Each structure stands twice: as C-alpha cells, then as structure tokens.
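name: query_chain
kind: protein
chains: 1
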Amino acid sequence: MEIKFSHVNSKDFTDLSFVIPKGEIVGIYGDNGNKLLKLISLDEESRGMIYFDKIRKLKSNYYLFKKTIVLVEDRFNNLFNVDNVYEYFVLYIRYNKIEVGDVLEKIKGALKIVGLRQDILDRRISTLTYSEIKLFQFALAFLSNPKVIILDEPFKGLDLNLRKKLVRIINRLQEKFLKTIVIYSNNPNYLYQYTNYLIVLYNNKVLVEGNSSDVFFECKELSLYKIKRPDIVDFILLVLEKKHVKLPRRRDVKDLIKDIYWNVK
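structure:
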C-alpha cells in the first residue's frame, strides 16, 4: 500500500508532504519521528490530505484504512491487564475484531513467522525476556495480516543475533508478501543498512526524502544541520575527501574492508 501525505498539519507537525512507496522498507529519521508514526498509523488527528493507494482518507472510510495498518511500539503496553500469553492473544483478536476461523491455528501461525515456540502460550508475559517480548509484539502485529507494518525503534536494545533475525523477518515480509514496512530509528546505521527509502525530519518538517543511500551520501542539508550520517558513509566520504579514492557504497563493513584491501593492493 502506498501512503501519500499532502500538506498535512497536526499538533506536532507543519505542512507535511511525503510519500511512502508501496512494498518498500521505508526509514523515518530525525526529530519526533516516533510521533510521525502515530500520524501514519492514523492514531493522531490531522488536517490535510492523506491518500492510501490514491484513495483519500475521509471520515467515512477512515476505518477501512485503519485496519490495514499496525503499529509495533518500542515498548510493550499491556492493554488488557492480563499476564497469560495465550489469553492476551485471544483478547487482542477480539479487541481488534480480527476475523479468524480457528483462533489457536491463527496464533500458532503468527508464532511460527517470528520463530517463537508454541509452549510460550502457557507462560506469563511477566516472565518473558526482552527479546521474547519483542517477538511477541511482532506476532501480535501479524494476526491481522496488515498491508502496512510500522515499527518504532525495533532494533533498540537487541543483540546482533536477534537483530539479524528481525531483519530476516522484515525482508521476508517485504519481498515475499509485498508488505510496506516503515521503520523509525534514531540510529542512522540501522536505517542505512536495512531500508530502501528514507524520510528525514528536521524542525518538525520533512527535510528530504528519497533512496536511503542517495540521501545519506548526497544530501548537503545533513551536514548543514549537523544531522548524523551512518559511520560507514562518513568513512567512505572521508576517504574520498582526503585520499581521492572513490569506494563503492557498501552497507556492510566486511565488504568495505575488502574494497579497501584491493585499493591498497
């Protein structure tokens, strides 16, 4: 699903105009990016024009779009004040009016996507580790089979192995199921490595948007407003400036090291 904002205003933003391309992994970077997620997920009121696949959001069709979007927040919020994992899944399905045939099979399917064992259904939420909570949140999000999945700081606090696991899940959703994924992070290294398209916010407005690599390498406004670039981008640009050696735009440090070796050699 493509999402287009045209001159949208809210309590936090002024004159927002940008596009979230359909079927892409889109990064949100900059001030109040987490608040922008609320607008995209239709959890905040706004004025202006918002289009979903070129159909304008109105009061009359608001719910049709709302149910196709899911927001996975950076922290788990226990909406139902229950501590059993299976019971929480069931209440989540009922609360969001998700149509399912076999509830247990639907839940098992969501657990399988994120790689959680079925015996987690017998556990208390309060006993789950941070990593298990994050995967539990993802499993909940997949229950409604949304077209757009919005992730608030999904990699924060995760070790490398779990981060790679989440990236594999995200890439599979985008490549195989053509989901539109929106990721907010204040870590430019993650956004450069894991997103295709980038929207940069500054002073509650959209500063620039476009291909993630092009934005980080070519946008002069990032330097002008002292917006941090990814470490690998800083290094490649420094080598070009100081040594006049143009290295490829690598996203992985290991690949970059190989390029440096061959250039030195």
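note: The chain has one domain: 3-212.
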